[in-house]
TrEMBL record:
Catalyzes the removal of dipeptides from the N-terminus of oligopeptides. Keywords: Aminopeptidase, Hydrolase, Protease, Serine protease, Signal. Belongs to the peptidase S46 family. Residues 1-22 form the signal peptide. Its EC number is 3.4.14.-. The keyword Transmembrane does not apply. It is an enzyme of class 3 (hydrolase). One of its GO terms (molecular function) is serine-type aminopeptidase activity. One of its GO terms (biological process) is peptide catabolic process. It comes from Solimonas marina. InterPro entries: Pep_S46 (IPR019500), Peptidase_S1_PA (IPR009003), Peptidase_S1_PA_chymotrypsin (IPR043504). This is Dipeptidyl-peptidase.
């Protein structure tokens, strides 16, 4: 499952020369590797093809990818990308475990916080950002850059923030800035979700592995003005799939890679940041697992969080192991020295090293406060968003925190006004644990702990907060949102009072990180990027930025310690892999339909496409822009893919379209949806 909490770093520069012969790279659509595609596959996409692919691809704002698969706004993505929606909609009806199929349009159900973005235009705004930040350093640089971005995004969005989203995107570590304009869909409805056991068959033991037997697919529909959105560009499903050696392309939104980090940044990741995150997720997984043992309802409440926490832990551990490979650091050091030799001065690298020393001094407090590790609670998140919204709206748009600028407000409001249920006992369990982590991290005598806990225990405070708060009531949240600063100041809600109390120290540590870490590193990265640009130009791809990219490859297995791993699995393998207990247990619907299924149907497969977290739900398409697969994971070697790409071993794992067709028609009685995807 590649719903990765973030990507990481260190593409070995000496591998750049091999780009033309390897299926490497997450390429922006305005700079595709046309020469490589033509040389290796005889494929020459024209501007019309690129525009079609751009507008048929979809971004899920919470961190996934997808694509339109019909003219009526039907969207195909991964099951794990819509799991949060299904969890929010479940209650008396346990759709997470029982599945959901809307066989009629009127049965489609609105997802409380889902937003889809379709890229419409890319504009180079490098000159505008450069002019705004010229001669500035540290906090002045950060403020000038954010103000320039806010103006560009506001001018782009205009008065249509409900339907338009604009983001300034930093590429090549500051070597280039682009303005991405999206069409925004905020009325998104659930259409199909297989049972949890079908989507996550094999569970955490099989995660990031192959062979796999997952129907990790979900379907949504975009609506506008209360009706299914009409779209001209979409990818029809081709159940035949792709043959070995056939060109496959993945269009999606890889979240974040840092393949051009300096040695100082890599050392920080290796020596404490990844360790901290892995330990945090390990303990969170244990807490969620313990809560789940209370009973069936508690297990249902925690199911989604536990799934993604286990996935995140596996990612952090895998990336930490990759960074402890001495060969990686030796090669990275050599390449950094080569790049420094081409520069006029070592100053940019030294500036990054100094910033990394500052980061380490403030990292824990920043994570606890600004990243809310100390406040693992839906109600606290809502309270913070309400408090900061009231404060930030009193400022000019360009002076606000980026997440509260005009272009971002619809997304914040959608989250605050979510109809998703809040479970009091679950909130208490999460808060008790995270408040305990705060006390453990900074010490019981720290002023921050005294401010938050006073003389109460984490469990006592958590109970008081949850028992006396009214933020679970949507009408209360609406009054506070619409009432602005006056309503927030007058509120006696304990979560609002807590959010107000910790806002000043949280903003202070954020300001320090921006002024003394982010600002110097971003300014230094620009200088390093110029050196890299002089040497390589745009013949290489930029790091992933959760923006639309295309990677190319082909269906291909790999050699694992002398054992050839075949590129396909078949449906019969899923039944053979059953043990009779979770996570190796198929849903009742699958076992009931077994005799009707063609068990030789291809189920999952692997390709050499270069992907990372955020590519979950990406369509795998052929040169005719037909869907021949649905990306949902990587193999175990994909952890190294966060740092560089090794075509020998790194694989994208995808659902075969034949399995999608077989399941929809013979298991879920959803033939109408299959026909819609096939254009029939």
């Amino acid at each position: 499952m590649i719903f990765d909490p973030r990507g990481w770093c260190a593409l070995v520069l000496s591998l750049f020369a091999a780009t033309a012969s390897a299926a490497e790279g997450m390429w922006t659509l305005d700079n595709l590797p046309l020469a490589q595609l033509k040389a290796k596959y005889g494929f020459e996409p024209d501007a019309k093809w690129v525009d079609h692919v751009m507008k048929a691809s979809v971004r899920l704002a919470d961190g996934c990818s997808g694509s339109f698969v019909s003219k009526d706004g039907l969207v195909l993505t991964n099951a794990h990308c819509v799991l949060s929606c299904v969890q929010d909609l479940s209650g008396k009806k346990d759709w997470v475990n029982d599945g959901f199929v809307a066989r009629k349009r009127e049965e489609e159900v609105a997802c409380p916080t889902m937003e889809l973005n379709r890229l419409e235009q890319i504009t180079d705004v490098t000159d505008q950002i450069r002019a705004a930040t010229a001669g500035k350093q540290g906090e002045d640089y950060v403020d000038a850059k954010q103000a320039a971005q806010a103006k560009l995004e506001s001018d782009c969005t205009g008065k249509d923030a409900a339907h338009t989203r604009c983001d300034v995107v930093e590429l090549y570590d500051g070597g280039k800035f682009d303005l991405y304009r999206y069409h925004r869909f905020q009325d998104v409805r659930l259409v199909f979700w297989p049972e949890y056991r079908a989507a996550f068959f094999g569970g955490d033991p099989d995660n990031f592995s192959f062979p796999r037997y997952n129907l990790d697919m979900g379907m949504l529909r975009a609506y506008e003005n209360g009706k299914p959105a009409k779209v001209k560009d979409f990818f029809p499903l081709n159940p035949a799939g792709a043959k070995p050696g056939e060109l496959t392309m993945v269009t999606g939104h890889p979240g974040s890679t840092d393949r051009q980090l300096t040695m100082a940044q890599l050392e920080g990741l290796r020596d404490y940041r990844l360790i901290d995150m892995a330990l945090y997720m390990a303990e969170r997984r244990a807490m969620l697992a313990q809560y789940s043992r209370i009973g069936a309802e508690a297990a249902r409440q925690a199911q989604t969080d536990l799934t993604f926490t286990a996935n995140s832990l596996k990612v952090y551990r895998g990336q930490l192991e990759a960074l402890h490979d001495p060969a990686v650091f030796a090669r990275k050091q050599q390449d950094e020295q080569a790049l420094r030799a081409a520069a006029a001065s070592d100053a940019p690298w030294e500036a990054v090293a100094q910033a990394e020393r500052v980061r380490r001094n403030h990292y824990i407090r920043y994570m606890m406060l600004e990243r809310r590790q100390a406040f693992y609670s839906d109600e606290f998140r809502i309270a913070r968003e309400l408090v900061r919204h009231a404060d930030e709206m009193a400022k000019p748009n360009a002076s606000r925190l980026p997440e509260y600028q005009d272009s971002a407000l619809p997304r914040i409001e959608q989250r605050v006004m979510s109809k998703a249920p809040i479970y009091p006992e679950y909130e208490k369990a999460k808060l008790t644990w995270s408040l305990t982590k705060l006390r453990e991290a900074v010490g019981p005598d720290d002023p921050l702990v005294m401010l938050v806990l006073g003389k109460e225990s984490p469990a006592q405070l958590a109970a008081e907060l949850v028992d006396h708060s009214e933020l679970a009531d949507l009408s209360v949240r609406k009054k506070l949102w619409n009432g602005g600063a006056a309503a927030i100041a007058a509120s006696k809600d304990p979560f609002i009072e807590l959010a107000r109390a910790v806002d000043a120290p949280s903003r202070a540590v954020r300001k320090t990180m921006e002024a003394d870490v982010d600002g110097p590193e971003e300014r230094a990265a620009e200088e390093i990027a110029k050196v890299r640009f002089d040497k390589y130009g745009t013949s290489v791809y930029p790091d992933a930025t959760f923006t639309l990219r295309l990677s190319y490859g082909e269906v291909k297995g790999w050699d694992e310690d002398g054992h050839e791993v075949a590129p396909y699995t078949q449906m019969e393998g899923a039944f053979a892999r059953q043990t009779g207990s979770d996570p190796f247990l198929l849903p009742k619907s699958w076992n009931a339909a077994k005799d009707k299924l063609d068990l030789s149907t291809p189920f999952d497969f692997v390709t050499t496409n270069d992907i990372i977290g955020g590519n979950s739900g990406s369509p795998v398409i052929n040169r005719d822009a037909q869907i021949v697969g649905l990306a949902f994971d990587g193999n175990q070697h994909s952890f190294g893919g966060a740092y560089w790409f090794d075509e020998r071993l790194n694989r994208c794992v995808a659902v075969h379209p034949a399995a999608i067709a077989e399941a929809l028609s013979k298991i879920y009685d959803a033939g109408a949806l299959l026909k819609e995807m096939e254009g029939r």
